[in-house]
Design a protein that fits this description.
The chain is an all-beta fold. It is built from no helices and ten strands. It is elongated. InterPro entries: Biotin_BS, Biotin_Carboxyl_Carrier/Decarb, Biotin_lipoyl, Single_hybrid_motif.
């Protein structure tokens, strides 16, 4: 083992290198590290989702995403009568499928979530009346 001291972007590191094979074709070459390109990026304004503008009417309840993830499958359809505990959609989060259940009996007035879409915690998924 041979020890070397290298400098990268002003930081000093001590490394050990194991020599493999014979010393016959040894070539000494100094390594160069290119400085990363710095680029200014302007902050973008967050897009206002259509789902955020939906407000429930009296007697309606909004089902929200309990965690961030992807809508894997929409089970219930708009206009369908559902009971508390019925699966309305399946949310995939951290490689696990999570059943999103209806919080109460009623009619599924609007399915806001679309299969394949990404949602964050608190995003509106559906409206039950």
């Amino acid at each position: 083992m041979r020890k070397f001291k290298i400098n990268v972007n002003g930081q000093s590191y001590e490394v050990e290198v194991e020599e493999i094979g014979s010393n016959e074709n040894q070539v000494s070459q100094s390594a160069t590290v290119k400085k990363p390109i710095e680029k200014q990026i302007e902050k973008s304004q967050p897009k206002k989702e259509v789902a955020e503008e939906i407000k429930p009417q009296q007697g309606q309840e909004i089902v929200e995403a309990p965690m961030p993830g992807n809508i894997w499958k929409v089970v219930a359809q708009e206009g369908q009568q559902i009971k508390a505990g019925d699966i309305i959609l399946i949310l995939e989060a951290m490689k696990m499928e999570n059943e999103i259940l209806a919080p109460r009996d009623g009619k599924l007035v609007k399915m806001i979530a679309k299969e394949g879409s990404t949602v964050n915690t608190g995003d509106k998924l559906a409206i039950i009346e």
